[in-house]
Design brief:
By secondary structure, this protein is an all-alpha fold. Helices cover 75% and strands 2% of the residues. It has a domain of 38 residues. It has 5 helices and 2 strands, in the order αααααββ. Strands 1-2 form a two-stranded antiparallel sheet. A hairpin with a 3-residue loop joins β1 and β2. α2 packs across α3. The longest helix has 77 residues.
Length: 162
């Protein structure tokens, strides 16, 4: 009893461990109510109801979280599908642009080839045609290195104009 007296009063300790005398019974009844309170049936019902409400709220929260996960998965799948369609559309557009560019380049190349195929000297007189052919021959010789040691045309390779 000594240990309990430090935390609770002497009357309360006496009431807890021994049967009180008839004169001290009213004091012990008050002390017992302060130390050990027995919950009533109403209190137990309220505690049970509160606990059940907490369990129901937890279950509802779990359902909400599961529904959010399902919705997030759906949104993610929709976003991935949208991204896939966007890439496919971009690829189609790039292919169309490349085809247009290829067709334009083919037309331009055909036009250039048609121009190159035209004879250059059709409208030239004989002297101009001879000069043009001589210039072409000289240019070809210079490009391939023929006659590198001799003066070619009006130009000397080492000193400039001859």
């Amino acid at each position: 009893m000594q240990g309990h007296e430090g935390r609770i009063g002497a009357v309360e300790a006496q009431c807890l461990w021994s049967e009180p005398s008839p004169g001290a019974r009213s004091r012990c009844d008050g002390a017992r109510r302060g130390v050990i309170k027995q919950p009533s049936d109403t209190d137990l019902e309220r505690i049970d109801a509160a606990f059940n409400r907490a369990l129901a709220a937890e279950a509802s929260a779990r359902e909400s979280v599961a529904a959010c996960r399902v919705e997030a998965d759906r949104l993610l799948a929709d976003a991935e599908d949208h991204a896939r369609r966007l890439v496919q559309r971009t690829d189609r557009r790039l292919l169309a642009v490349q085809q247009i560019a290829d067709a334009s380049l083919q037309r331009a190349l055909s036009e250039l080839l048609d121009r190159v195929a035209e004879p250059l000297g059709d409208g030239l007189d004989t002297a101009a045609d001879a000069r043009l052919n001589a210039a072409i021959d000289t240019l070809a010789d210079e490009m391939i290195g023929a006659g590198a040691d001799a003066a070619v045309g009006p130009w000397n390779r080492e000193c400039g104009p001859s």
